[in-house]
Amino acid sequence: MEYNFNTVIDRHGTNCIKTDLAVARGKPADVLPLWVADMDFPTSPAILEALHKKVDHGIFGYSCLDDNFYKALAQWMETEHNFKIERREVVTTPGVVFAIACAIKAFTKEGEAVIIQSPVYYPFKNMIEANNRKTVTSSLFEKDGKWQIDFEDFENKIEKNNVKLFILCSPHNPVSRVWTKSELERLSDICLRHNVIVFADEIHNDFVYEPNRHTVFSTLSEKAAQNSIVSMSPSKSFNLAGLQFSTNFIKNPALRARFHAERDKTGYDEPSLMGMTAALAAYQKGKPWLEALKKHLLENIEFVRSYLAENLPKVRLIEPEGTFLLWLDFSALGYPDAEIDDIIVNKAKVWLDRGTMFGQEGSCYQRINIATPRALLKEALDRISREFSMEKKDA
Questions:
Q1: For residue 393, what pLDDT is reported?
Q2: How far is residue 275's CA from residue 51's CA, in Å, rounded to a whole number?
Q3: Which of 80, 131, 241, 319 is most buried, by CB atoms within 10 Å?
Q4: Rounded-to-integer distance, Cα 317 and Cα 143, Å
Q5: In 31-61, which positions are buried (b, 16+ CB within 10 angstroms) versus exposed (e)?
Q6: Residues 6 or more apart from 241 whose CB is under 8 A from it?
């Protein structure tokens, strides 16, 4: 089947965070939004068909997962990620951030420390602090165009702060690293030495570009499996974030019981009917659409790479290993971080995610979402290029 990812669909007036909150978030009303990590494409036709069928049935009562779902989930994880699961290990949540909050409450006490690797997806820090825990940051660093882990700093921070929980982003958002197996093994070894539980946010795991390979954290070793919670969702892969559904894989029965208890305290008893319907269709029939989508994303990456080289040669693309989020370095243009943001948002009228949202390590970076039609991506880059060219002339 042919899939078209270049049709521009107006999302204004559809209760869309990306478009309809611009003014409320202090952005121009006519800003072009390529910030939040959802896609500007309809989801897979197979998923739409399943959802239509459920709508036509007309009853939306309390719902539960069945054998068909667990079979499809297990097959997807084994086929796509070399990850064997058992039904009893699965705990559902409305989303990965919800699961992070559950893990923080399940495995730490108020005032205790949770470590993250900054710059990183900002809800990590938000959830730590909203639950009255201490955020400990071990900064990633860039070397030769590739962001790296400072393992010595990571271990020192754990020891110094008596860290209890590590929230891992794998593949990493925003620096677009797909951590190697050896890197993950070193992190696991450190955490095991210091009795630090690992929560692995692997929501971007279906977007990994050759020759990189994603390694599910709990497949590293039996000890890693017993010391971790791995959280995944079809929401990024199939553009289903609004349907509120994710799965958490917890091998250790003691950890699973503690996590389950915190989830139950929220009053969350049954999964979203539409969320699980969409997930089942994705795992059973969504792969052709996903493969076509990844081809489009690779073409968009090449477009951005070429566009920058020709029109914005001082803006550096950090070569992506995964995700549909590109990390762009504007530092060589010579503007302060706040001025870069002002030019992009208020003059070019393009809404990206400012790098410092992910931590101070992101100063002078911007994150751009390329899961969009080529015409919108080109328009955004044209606006940015035009404004920085004008700034240069006026200088």
A1: 57
A2: 9
A3: 241
A4: 14
A5: bbbbbebbbbbebbebbeebbeebeeeeeee
A6: 38, 95, 235
One CATH from 3.40.1160.10, 3.40.640.10, 3.30.420.40, 3.40.50.300 for 59-285: 3.40.640.10
Q: What is the pLDDT of residues 162-178, one digit of tens each?
A: 999 999 999 999 999 99
Give per-residue pLDDT as tens, 25-45. Answer: 999 999 999 999 999 999 999
Are 200 and 220 in contact by the 8 Å Cβ rule? The answer is: no
**Given this model, what pLDDT does residue 390 score?**
80
Fold of the domain spanning 17-44+287-394: Aspartate Aminotransferase, domain 1 (3.90.1150)
Domain boundaries, the chain: 17-44+287-394, 59-285
pLDDT at position 394 is: 59
Q: Which residue is associated with the tokens 């139950």?
A: 264
Whether 59-285 and 17-44+287-394 are alike in CATH topology: the answer is no
What percentage of the chain carries pLDDT values higher than 70?
Answer: 99
